[in-house]
C-alpha cells in the first residue's frame, strides 16, 4: 500500500440490512442489539467497517429510506443509547460504523414536511419542491422510481410536490440553503457520536431540476457536495461513498479525485445494468454477455487508476443475490460463489460484502404474497395493468426483486435460521438448513472460509492494492482473466465463468505461485474445471519464467 494511504483503501466493508440481520428481542425485526451480538462474527471474517442501512426514526414505508428524524433511532431498531453502544463495541474490535445518509428526500411524516404542508407561507414550505396546478394535470410527465407520477397533489395548497421515489418520500429542496444547513447539522451530530463514515443515498439526485426533467447530475451537484464536504466530513479520516447511478468514469473521477474535496469513492452501477434489455428497465431481462462484463469492469479499473477510487461490489440490499444472478445456485453454488469473489477481489478498490454473500446465500424467489418490498408490489400492479402476463411479471420479480437480498441472515439450521425467536417480518429462505453460518465457520471448504482467506490475502498482498490492471484474453467468451502489476510482482487472476471445462490462457506461472484457488487442488496446466478460479502471484524478477506452464 502506498505510504500514508487512507485506511479505507485497504479495508473490507460489510453491509448490514438491519431489519434482516439479527433480532435480539423477538419482534421479528432485526435490531442494533442483534448486531452487537454478531460483532465477533464480523471481526473473525476480517471486517473493518460496517455500512449500516438506515436505522433512523422512520415510518418504514421504504424500510428506513424514508426518514422522519435524522438524529434519532427508530424504536424498531433500538435507542440512541443502543447506537452509541454499537459504535463503542464495534470500535473495540477495530470496526467502524458507516451510517447511511438519505438526503435526497425525507419521509412525508418528517416534521419539516408536516409543517410544509400547512401553508405556502410556512417557513418549512420551501424545504420541498412545489408547483402550482390543478388536479389531474401534473406539471410534467416525470415518473417516480416506485411507480406512478413524480408529482402528488395536495388539495389544501392547490399544489403538487415532487418525489423521485414513493409518495411518502418527498424530495428535499437543496436549492434552499436552510435545508442544507439542517442536513449538515445532522451529519455533524453523527460525526460527534464517533461514526466512521457515510454512505450517501442517491446523492447524484439531490440537485434535480424538475422543470427540465433533470434528475441526476444537476448543474449544482458538485457545488453542493463540496459545500457539504467543507461543512462536515472534509479534513477528517471518515470514509464517504456516494450512491451514483448516473456516474461515468469521468464523473467518478471528479467525486473521488485523491486530491479532491468530495467523497472517498462512489458506487457506480454500469456492470449492474448489463443483464437488462437496452433501453428497458431492470425488469426487462436479458442474458449477461461475459465480454460486456469484462469491458465494463476493465474500463473502470483503467480509468480510475491513480485518478479516483473504485468500490467493488456484486450485491447490496437492492440487488439480487450474485450467486443466483451470474453464478450457479444449483450444483455449483459453492464453486461459483467463490469464483465471483476471486474475480472481484483481485481488482483495485474497496470491496463491499453484503450480508450473507460470504455464505453464498441465494435468491428467495417467493410468491407475491411473501414479497414485502414497495417497489415489487407497485411493479406487480403496474405491469398487470399494462397487460403483462402474471408469469412474465413474476419471472422479473424472481430475477431482480429487492426482497431476494432482504431475507433474514442464515445463522443456523435451527428455527428461523437463528435470526429471530419470533415471527420474521419476511420469510426465511427455506434453504437455510443447507446454507448457514454455523455450518460454514471453521469448515475449510466453505464459502465463508474462502471469503475469509481472500479478505486476509487482499490485505497482505500490495499488488492487489496498487498494481496496474490489464485484461487478458479479451475475446474469450468463457474466461475472465486479468493481471495486476506493481513493478515488483504480478498477480494473475483467472476465472472460468461457466459450468463447462475449458482451456485457460497460457501464463508464465507455476504451481507454487497459486495464492488461492477454489478447488482443493490447483488447476492441471491451463485446463480449468467448471467455475474454477485462481490467483497466481509471481515475482517479476524471476530468472526463467516457465512459459506455457499454464
Ligand atoms: O436506491 C436508489 C435506486 O435508485 C435504486 O436502487 C432503486 O431502489 C431501485 O432498485 C431501482 O429499480 C436507494 C436505496 O438503496 C434504496 O433502497 C432506496 O429505496 C432508494 O434509494 C430511495 O431512498
State the CATH architecture of the largest domain.
Alpha-Beta Barrel
Q: Report the mean per-residue pLDDT as an integer.
A: 96
Task: Count up the helices.
Answer: 15
- CATH homology group of the largest domain: Glycosidases
Which sequence of strands runs across the widest sheet?
11-10-9-5-2-1-13-12
N-C termini distance: 29 Å
Protein structure class: alpha/beta
In CATH, the topology of the largest domain is named TIM Barrel
Bound molecule kinds, no repeats? 1-O-alpha-D-glucopyranosyl-D-fructose
Helix content: 25-40%
Q: Using only CA atoms, what is the Rg?
A: 24 Å
Count of DSSP strands? 20
Q: Given this structure, which CATH class of the largest domain is correct?
A: Alpha Beta
Envelope shape? globular
Commentary on this structure:
- The structure is a single chain.
- The protein has 550 residues and is of the alpha/beta class.
- It has four domains: 8-104 and 177-370 and 404-453, Alpha-Beta Barrel (TIM Barrel), CATH 3.20.20.80; 111-162, Alpha-Beta Complex (Oligo-1,6-glucosidase, domain 2); 371-403; 465-539, Golgi alpha-mannosidase II (Immunoglobulin-like), CATH 2.60.40.1180.
- It has 15 helices and 20 strands.
- The chain has an eight-stranded parallel beta sheet, covered by helices on one side. The protein has a five-stranded antiparallel beta sheet with strand order 14-15-16-20-18.
- Strand 14 and strand 15 form a beta hairpin.
- Helix 7 runs parallel beside helix 8 (290-304), helix 10 packs parallel to helix 14 (447-460) and helix 11 packs antiparallel against helix 12 (390-400).
- The longest helix is centred in the middle third of the chain and has 16 residues, at 177-192.
- 49% of the residues are buried.
- The model has no long low-confidence stretch (mean pLDDT 96).
- GO terms for molecular function: alpha-amylase activity.
- Residues 15-406 form the Glycosyl hydrolase family 13 catalytic domain.
- Keywords: Glycosidase, Hydrolase.
- This is Alpha-glucosidase.
- Belongs to the glycosyl hydrolase 13 family.
